[in-house]
Write a structure and sequence with these properties.
The structure is a homotetramer of 271-residue chains. Chain A has 271 residues and is of the alpha+beta class. Chain A is 44% helix and 12% strand. The first copy, chain A, contains 9 helices and 7 strands. Chain A has a 7-stranded mixed β-sheet with strand order 3-2-1-4-7-6-5, with helices on both faces. In chain A, strand 1 and strand 2 form a beta hairpin. The two termini of chain A are 26 Å apart. Chains A and D meet through helix 7, helix 8 and helix 9 of A and helix 4 and helix 7 of D.
Chain lengths: 271, 271, 271, 271
């Protein structure tokens, strides 16, 4: 399967980057000239993010992480259907925003690739997406208790964390999976301009500018949920970051972010 | 002891598969023709399941997992009395549905083999059983708080999780162990057609179509219990999967199940 | 230091076993004839118990485990002052019941050796003792909430778990350490005939017939505390084992105990 | 970068120790004569402390630990901006109490070095400082619930644990970081003569006489917080150490401290 994947990837890289339109990047830095190494680097980042999120307890056998194709903003890179911890570069496939790219023969795609496709379509500022069943987020998604930042590491949550209820979006009972473009669009609509949305009875989606940031946000959203649950049990009144603090703190997170990424990467590298 | 076990197993495989009756498989796929490799494959699966359940925190020094003998539905395969993490193929013995198969000399059987024997007898749809002291299930078993699915991974719990009280079943105090056919039958009766039953002051029993499914259900029953306990502490009202959602979600779990199994298996394989 | 320790041990073994009185073993199986290998085996068990308790989270840098000397019931074997995880056979010293055995030059003893000395003196049925700061026990020791067995693995707790308050025992403030024979006797008195006593603001002491049993009891006392705390938070009424169940369940624990010991031992052996 | 760091360190060691003033050590033991090996030993301790605190869960990708320069009390040793688990001796830089020491080219300093600088200035008794986002401390910092010692291992908390609110200190919203000398002084003022101060919505600062003590205090402050949260949920009334007990217990901790340090050090050493 490895060779077949590589062939697909090489073909896609050669064929698609030539035609890569510049749409939808209005809010992102100007696209760099197509770089033959950019996609290989992106694939390596997707692989690392999968391993890090497993190592950090954000994903288990399920969940997926994607990155907008740096050589073509109408595509994104995501593994075939496989547990995040086991993802290798050969598993990473190019997906289009319709989620319809045919997989290599015998390869299964994540059923919920439409989460990624539709958010990339509606959020030109987003270049990396995580879908996870991060354990501490589940209780918040089913109780209506608002997830709020109680320390500076999760300041990015200050604008609110909407909850997507698929029952309402679908107008009836589903299998809880975002398995169609329509449901993907409904989730994207609930997400709006936020960095995180919870999915009732399911998990969450986290979006960011790039792979290190989406990993950082995933890890600290999980941790904030855990600490908020503890704080709410400890005392009757919890002081959250005020909006101004949160805004300033979030701006300050960019520097330290690479410090965490460097550590997390080291933890998943083979010795 | 290894040689003696192997001799027993080989003898059993040769002798019993010829006479394997077709009873009790009405609700399962039609039995395949006796396959000389089928039992060896089954034993390997039982060993893997033991290791995975230990690795995932479902069992500690105690608990056991069994599989209906693929070459004879009136038998099942389960280890001698040993900690799950230490089970090897040579430890796996053929048990009959009376729990009376004499063990090799010097070998002790699990006292509670009647849990397995009687459930296999009463549930022809069941081909794999886990008995465990899964930690997050204990509090549910002793408080009367109903375990209910709060996310799609544990949708299989939606039909309810009965609690077996051995005191009532035995009509008086016991040592809490299901150590007789009568107690096994009482537990099987409490289980009914459900996939999981809690055992008050003891643990739980989980049943399924096959080994990967029983491992999956064991892992996510434990996780649902942990998250439900947290959710109930977090907010006054927890939204569980509604019956239609749960039914649809459960049907959708079959595909992803192999993804988790592949990961779990990798985690317990020696490098 | 190794040689000096060995010399001490050899000398003690030669000298003391000849005079070993048969006192205080009334409730234990009849003493075997002095066995030149018995003490070496005992020392190995003490070392293993230290490593297992660290591996199982019952002790951290602190806590200690001892065994009555099989060749002399008026002595016990316990490490010099060192973290349990680091104990080697050369660290294990012979202590007398006054806690006054002079240590080899440059060697420090555990300040709280009087816990062990006085319990061995007052409890002839006890041949192994653990003192620990087992984390889940601390909250029970400071709240007055009774620790009670909620499942069969901790049935041995059914007779009640007394709490030792050193402030009352000493008639005033202490440094919380049982650092004198008087305080050791007061603790032994609080323990009475129980297998476990909590120590307010400090930890616990666990006693048993032998090393595997004291390790088993230590592990499952910690786990019962954790699960009881969760159960009490989950529902208004927790069903504990009734006295008859507990008695019968406790009697049944002896068989499975070796299964857990075998596993725990394997986990701490170097590969 | 290694060579450049080493050059800086060697230069600093040669140049600065000659001019090392004796100020601010009034409450500490008399300074030893400048020892050419003292700084190398100190740097090794700073590296070990970083690794231990990561291993013990007190720091993750963030947090820092410093030590007053043993050859010059107006300086302190702390890593460049890097995750604690990754710190090597070559990363440790000499900082002055203004936090203004220019870093080697291309090297970034911790933004919050002023926490350390200003506490060393105001607390001559302090020779080691940890800043961390120790998880169990966050809920105490945002609820106003007082952190109090419930067992003897954390007796040093008995004098009270003040909470630093940067919003009040700065007279308005900040990015939550102590990134100026002024904020460092405000934090030092809140800390006063205490060993620990919480930082609302951020983490904590822990100070001590030396590196082993500051690590010990960091580990057991985290653990006390975890156990206090559990105790408060378990029962309506928690008994804390009384002031006399705490005083005596704290004095007794010095001996055992080296036992924990020896263990923690072993855990982070490569085999």
């Amino acid at each position: 399967m490895t060779n077949r994947h590589l062939a697909l990837l090489v073909g896609a890289a050669l064929g698609l980057t030539l035609a890569a339109p510049a749409i939808g990047r209005a809010q992102t830095p100007p696209a760099k000239a197509p770089d033959p190494d950019a996609r290989a680097k992106a694939i390596a980042d997707v692989v690392a993010a999968n391993h890090i999120l497993a190592n950090q307890g954000v994903v288990d056998g399920f969940g997926h992480v994607s990155m907008r194709d740096p050589t073509d903003p109408t595509k994104f890179l995501m593994a075939r259907s496989v547990a995040p911890e086991l993802v290798t570069a050969a598993d990473v496939l190019v997906h289009d925003l319709d989620g319809n790219t045919p997989p290599p023969a015998g390869v299964k795609l994540y059923l919920e690739r439409f989460i990624h496709a539709e958010i990339y379509r509606s959020r030109p500022d987003v270049n990396a997406i995580v879908h996870c069943h991060s354990p501490s987020l589940i209780p918040f998604g089913v109780t209506g208790v608002a997830l709020r930042p109680l320390y500076h590491m999760s300041a990015f949550l200050a604008g609110g964390v909407p909850v997507f209820d698929i029952h309402k979006a679908a107008g009836g009972a589903t299998d809880m999976l975002v398995r169609t473009p329509e449901l993907g669009r409904a989730l994207a609509k609930t997400l709006g301009t936020h960095p995180v949305a919870l999915m009732r009875g399911h998990g969450a989606v986290v979006v960011a500018r790039d792979i290190p940031q989406v990993v950082f946000r995933s890890v600290y959203t999980e941790q904030n949920a855990q600490l908020q649950r503890q704080a709410m049990a400890l005392g009757p009144k919890v002081i959250y970051l005020d909006p101004d603090e949160a805004k300033k703190a979030e701006e300050s997170l960019d520097g330290p972010l690479s410090r965490a990424w460097e550590l997390w990467l080291r933890k998943v590298k083979q010795p």
